[in-house]
Amino acid sequence: MPLPTVAIIGRPNVGKSTLFNRLVGKRLALVDDMPGVTRDRREGEAQLLGCAFRVIDTAGFEDEDPASLPGRMRVQTESAVREADVALFLVDARAGVTPLDEEIARWLRSAGTPVVLAANKAEGRAGEAGVIEAMALGLGEPVPISAEHGEGVGDLSEALQPWIDLPEEEAEDEDEDSPDAPLKLAIVGRPNAGKSTLINKLLGENRLLTGPEAGITRDSIAVPWEWQAADGTARAVRLIDTAGMRKKAKVQDKLEKLSVADALRAVDFAEVVVLLLDATKGLEVQDLKIADRVLQEGRALILALNKWDVAEDASRLFNGVKAALDEGLAQVKGVPLLTVSAATGKGLDTLMQVAFETRDAWSRRITTGQLNRWFERAIEANPPPAPGGKRIKPRYVTQNKTRPPSFVLFGTRVDMLPVSYQRYLINSLRREFDFGAVPVRLTMRAPRNPFDRDREQRG
Asked: What are the residue boundaries of the EngA-type G domain, all occurrences included (predicted)?
């Protein structure tokens, strides 16, 4: 049974994201003193009084032209409230009731969604007058709370209980290695590459805020979804939209720094990362830096050229980007490069198919027997060098983890193997076991020489 949903609504800067973080028990939403930080609606799971529910943090409700950015944000907020089981209307007790609060209250009364009114920042005497004033909104007695300090959350839980009172079911441990587990797919890239548009196209709805303005997305937003594969099976996906990542030197604004840090955390959370490129701008140095960061974190990487429907001289562009990738990402050859159009949907099914195949490779485990048969052939075909006349004796190799595939090579003096020979072994591993372009890690483990240790002690 789906969890009941609580949508937090209110004008900008009343503390909605702070309350959201308090309810979910994690610092998921970006918080800043500047109004209007939240733009897309963010979801999380909360537990109060033994009840589990889904909570939605919405953008600040503003009275603006529907075509403007604040106007489009308001449309997202209204949609979240209509879908919710209960709306949690937050006002600022210290600022008192404003005309915009009164407008929101009028809209809520006509929306048909049950409403719980809460007066935030009510700690101390400074908020007492605002709590009393909020009663005039006609939405019942306000619950005084302090989202920042956690005061009044128990009273808020009791006020919400009629709409969230479903027994919390025991959560089963999700086996992340299972091919049936949801694919955690993050979409990253420079600002205005079309990340939110692509996710909206996959979902078939305007779930994320989009527009011509660069940098609309600030929080990393995770959205559950099911992809219908060509064979008719439904595959669970967790789509993660992220803020655009510009060159570090250009990121001066505090809020943009928070957004970029949030996007990098989303990469750590993901299994497969799609780096979305703007086909009208080609490949830039910043794209290679983002790709390198993804690979350093051990995530599986796919590159997608977006806006392919309006790209000029497509064949030359594709070959140029591919050549630049081979040169710029020397540590991993053959990263999948796909062409898509978030506007028309072209290539998106192929993108999802490749994403699942890439995760399969990223999660692959090889038996020790298979590994050592490969290992014997690789050593025989290309014996290790003897730097300084010291013979290196590789003994055996084993896989110590997956996601990404990681291996340990044991033997005498294997820690002296040149980087070029290590790269030979990794590339041979890729070919033999069809790892494709996912990161493969190889660690050398050589036993310490007791005679060397004795000499060190005598010295």
From this structure: 4-168, 183-363
Domain ranges of the chain: 5-164, 183-362, 368-454
User: Would the annotation count 15 as a binding residue?
Assistant: yes
Q: Is 254 annotated as contributing to ligand binding?
A: no
The CATH code of the domain at 183-362 is 3.40.50.300
Query: Taking the model in full, what pTM does it have?
Result: 0.62
Q: Which residues of 370-398 are buried (b: 16+ CB within 10 A; e: fewer)?
A: ebeebbeebbeeeebeeeeeeebebeebe
| CATH number at 5-164 | 3.40.50.300
Q: Is 436 annotated as a binding residue?
A: no
Instruction: From residue 270, give the alpha-carbon distance in Å to each of 64, 239, 263, 421.
Output: 36, 9, 11, 31
Residue 123 annotated as binding site: yes
Report whether 393 belongs to an annotated binding site.
no
As a whole number of angstroms, the distance between CA 57 and CA 26 comes to 13
58 known ligand binder: yes
Beta partners for residue 399, in sequence order: 407
CATH code that applies to domain 368-454:
3.30.300.20
What are 4-57's pLDDT values in tens digits?
889 999 888 888 888 888 888 755 443 334 434 344 557 788 877 667 888 888
